[in-house]
């Protein structure tokens, strides 16, 4: 079985290698999936660079990847939600960057027929992040007006759509080149960060600000936009200056969140044509493609998801 692994922390071109691995056994609660596509996320880049090794050390060679879609080829005796031959969306704790994956049955769901494998693999972590942030981290405290910074990104674009599906007024920031796309997603008002200061335009406007960018200038702008006493949620870097009254929250995964719950909501919205994902690139199933995907994400990536797809 072919898998793409890292042999150490470091630059993508230096540490990625193609390996042959033995198949894992499937116990009563697990499912074997033939991977047809897997997504590459900023999180994968951060793990590969060693940014998380202080609390998540790796044993090398290590196979990255949490997001995939494929065909079920074997199920354990206790599995009831999928059957052999089903096309599925899967969210694993690593190991998705390869031809095959074994994971618990509660970490996957049947893929809608009209959703491609590439789309399915692209949705997973960005959607689970957006859903859990809105539904569980913020819940009833989110308010009626929400600013999404980085609204053209994979998480930001799904946040805009989910918030609109929940009846919220959505303010959005992104590059001016992505304005038409963000407005198409449903944003009520848009500010191009490369043309104006959204903080000045929307000062004291949003009940909640969600910063899906890497931080920096957007943090100061977001604090201005947040109403006094409101919520500021960061995917990456919280503002250094938190002197303004408010709830400053850093979002991260939690064992208290259910993948299946989030994926069920995704499928329900997708089947109603209420959610979409923008694909930035679908690359062939090669080592060179995996390296390229990581290098693209480390730069200034295009709007949308990058996936690796077997054809």
* Relevant CATH superfamily of the largest domain: Medium-chain alcohol dehydrogenases, catalytic domain
* CATH-scheme architecture of the largest domain: Alpha-Beta Complex
Helix/strand/pairing class, anyone?
alpha/beta
Morphology: globular
Q: In total, how many beta strands? A: 15
**Largest sheet report:** 7 strands, mixed
**CATH class label of the largest domain:** Alpha Beta
User: What order do the SSEs take from the amino end to the carboxyl end, as H and E?
Assistant: EHEEHEEEEHEHEHEHEHEEHEHE
Q: For the residues shown, what is the average pLDDT?
A: 95
- How many structural domains in the coordinates? 2
Ranges where pLDDT stays below 50 over 5 or more residues in a row are none
As for the CATH topology of the largest domain, it is: Quinone Oxidoreductase, Chain A, domain 1
Tell me the β content: 25-35%
Q: Count the DSSP helices.
A: 9
Radius of gyration: 19 Å
The percent range for helix content is: 25-40%
Task: Measure the end-to-end span.
Answer: 16 Å
Protein name: NADP-dependent oxidoreductase
Domain Enoyl reductase (ER): 13-308
InterPro entries: ADH-like_C, ADH-like_N, Chloroplast_QOR, ER
Pfam families: ADH_N, ADH_zinc_N
């Amino acid at each position: 079985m072919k898998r793409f692994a890292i042999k150490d922390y470091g630059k993508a071109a230096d540490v990625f290698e193609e390996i042959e691995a033995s198949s894992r056994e499937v116990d009563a609660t697990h499912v074997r999936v033939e991977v047809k596509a897997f997504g590459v996320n900023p999180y994968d880049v951060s793990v590969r660079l060693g940014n998380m090794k202080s609390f998540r050390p790796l044993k090398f060679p290590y196979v990255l990847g949490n997001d995939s879609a494929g065909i079920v080829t074997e199920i354990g005796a206790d599995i009831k939600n999928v059957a052999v031959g089903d096309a599925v969306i899967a969210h694993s704790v690593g190991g998705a960057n390869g031809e095959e994956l074994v994971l618990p049955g509660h970490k996957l769901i049947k893929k809608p027929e009209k959703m491609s494998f590439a789309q399915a693999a692209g949705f997973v972590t960005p959607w689970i992040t957006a859903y859990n942030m809105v539904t569980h981290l913020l819940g009833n405290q989110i308010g009626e007006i929400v600013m999404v910074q980085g609204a053209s990104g994979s998480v930001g674009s799904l946040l805009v759509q989910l918030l609109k599906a929940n009846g919220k007024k959505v303010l959005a920031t992104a590059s001016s080149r992505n304005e038409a796309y963000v407005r198409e997603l449903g944003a009520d008002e848009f500010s191009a960060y490369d043309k104006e200061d959204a903080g000045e335009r929307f000062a004291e406007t949003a009940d909640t600000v969600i910063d899906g960018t890497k931080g920096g200038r957007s943090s100061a702008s977001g604090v201005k936009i947040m109403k006094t006493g409101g919520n500021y949620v960061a995917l990456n870097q919280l503002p250094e200056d938190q002197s303004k009254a408010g709830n400053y929250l850093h979002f991260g995964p939690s064992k208290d969140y259910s993948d299946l719950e989030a994926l069920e909501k995704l499928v329900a919205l997708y089947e109603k044509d209420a959610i979409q994902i923008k694909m930035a690139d679908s690359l062939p199933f090669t080592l060179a493609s995996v390296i390229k995907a990581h290098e693209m994400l480390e730069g200034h990536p295009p709007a949308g998801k990058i996936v690796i797809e077997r054809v």
